[in-house]
Sequence to fold (743 residues):
Amino acid sequence: MTEVNKPPRAGDEPPRAGGWTGFVTARPRLSLLVALVLTALAVLAGGGVADHLGSGGWEDPAAESTYATKALERKFPDSQPNLLLLVDAGRASVDDPAVAAAARGLAERLAGERGVTGVGSYWQAGPAAAPGLRAEDGHEALIAARITGDENAMGRTLDRIVPHYRGTHGPVRVKVGGIVAVRHEMQTIIKEDLTRAEMIALPITLVLLVMVFGSAVAALLPLGIGIVAILGTNAVLRALTSFTDVSVFALNLTTALGLGLAIDYALFIVRRYREELSGGADPLTAVGTTLRTAGRTVLFSALTVAVSLAAMMVFPQYFLRSFAYAGIAVVLLAAAAALILLPAALVLLGHRVNSLDLRRLFRRGRTSADSGTQAAGDTSWARTATLVMRRAPLFAIGTSALLVVLGLPFLGVRFGTADDRQLPSGAESHVVQQHLRDGFPGTPGGGLEVLAEGRATQAQYAAYKQRVAALPEVVGVDGPLVKGDTAYFTVEPRGEAVDTGAQRLVGDLRSLKTPFATKVTGTAAVLVDSKHAIGERLPWAGAFIAVVTLLLVFLLTGSVLIPLQAVVLNALSLTAMFGAVVWVFQDGHLSGALGFTSPGSIETTLPVLMFCVAFGLSMDYGVFLLSRIKEEYDRTGDHDEAVRHGLQRTGGLITAAAVILAVVMVAIGTSRVTNTKMLGLGIALAVLMDAMVVRSLLVPAIMRLTGRATWWAPAPLRRFHRRFGLSEGEAPAPAPEKETAGV
Fold:
């Protein structure tokens, strides 16, 4: 006989939350006033946060390439130009005397700018010394320089000097590029796009909430909670910038999760509150019941999402860690606002939460509260659950096969680094870099640099240079440039900057035995080190997410099988997202319609980020569904009816929440920066697939196949759950115990 968890008896009921209910509802006006004051302070503290955020963070700070880059910046600053002036002579030659005079004048003026060093140009070095600074058609050439300081200081210097160099100067026209210009332009565009995304998402979200609730008053509550969470997180990020680097890309996650999760939580709480009111409860009792039921689910959901986001703290790149900072802050603030501010507002509103019913023109003979109750118990979702469970093997196999097929393109993923092609095709720094790729000799931005440290003779340097030049992936070697006990060589690889050949060359250079210490850097080296850092820590991040998620879902359900199902099905729900990312953004399908330039690869950190965010959001919906199924199973002991009831009660809610979050993510996906577009559109797809396919079809099918064994747990774990587990729902009346002869 296989023993399954039975519905709890009277003595097994979960601990009550009456004390918490009393705390958050005792002085609702004071609570809202304090919240208003704190929000105003957050606006002041978080104002201008984007100006303090960085646009890099993809490198491992402990990697060999990072060490070599910093050492070269210190000892050979002229070797690390980050600012390029593309000088276009029009139909004339760059060697024309008038063109050369104008270009030399620009270079001399640039050398006198504060915060600029290492100025060099084609006209100063000459054709023989710097052939790579002259275009093959002879009509364009480069002035290179280095802007010093951290990212914010470089941005300020760029803002100060660029207006004086961009544009027409006598016979030449100048465009500004280089890595510092790319990152600064990316930061500016992200700020502009984020404002536009908010202007798109907020009104559409409000309309959708009105459609869900009917009542304009009820619809405004989730939106208010989301705005509070976003403003609070901006203040947290601003504080974090005082002692650590934070990526500007994190602002997009703050907006998306702040609106999305706050709306999810508020939807769940307001819907349950309206159910209690329609059942005859007074407002204070309805709030208490809501906090003991939906409130616990919200708390659990917030913890599962925070766990997924916290996993990014394992990685050394501050790009990923920034999303952990922003994500954890916004999740906790959204949950706190939903569990403290929202109940206070509901107590003050009472039955007026159903006021301003904007749907009354489209129906007759039904009140807003009635509508809310019917929506919560939509019979169409009950029919869906019945159909799925009747054909459970067909739905389980068919849905799983579909998700696997949609994920197949990810098997061909190629990883790369973020570059100027993240920007719109008309962005000036992207135009400059594209000119370098198309019209200049060599591999612009793709050269490898070898830092040599330790005493060595010219003969030893020459022998090393000869060995490097003999490597199969090498086109040419320049150097060495020697300063004391340090020297560096520039190695030009064949092909593209970060293709497999360039990455192999990094390994070959690092494996050469030399009489001095060598460190390799450059675009391909940074990619190799980044892939190594992520690959090394990925199992730890995955194990952290899996173990903590298993524990949290067990505490919610008391089952051994349900947590395993949750982890596997959540991961399966993400396959469509990863397949679409490769098919669209790497392979370039739909690039014209979506308005981006495909670099032919996926930035290394993006899949990690998208997995952590999408997995957390999937668990969010999973907790909503499982908590309601568990509540009904505790009440009745009927497994099939519990699954049917859970989908009936939450199917519409989860779908509405997913559509609203998808709207927010699509608004983020309208960004002109490719990584942000990929993040927004990819997660929107993952959320919709999870809500409409996995939660609606796959979960009920799998739970029907596993039957009452779904609730099984060994005796020690059952005792552990009775003592420490959390359950949603009022203390159930003892249900008839059922035995299963065999499963």
Observations:
- The first strand starts at residue 83 and ends at 88.
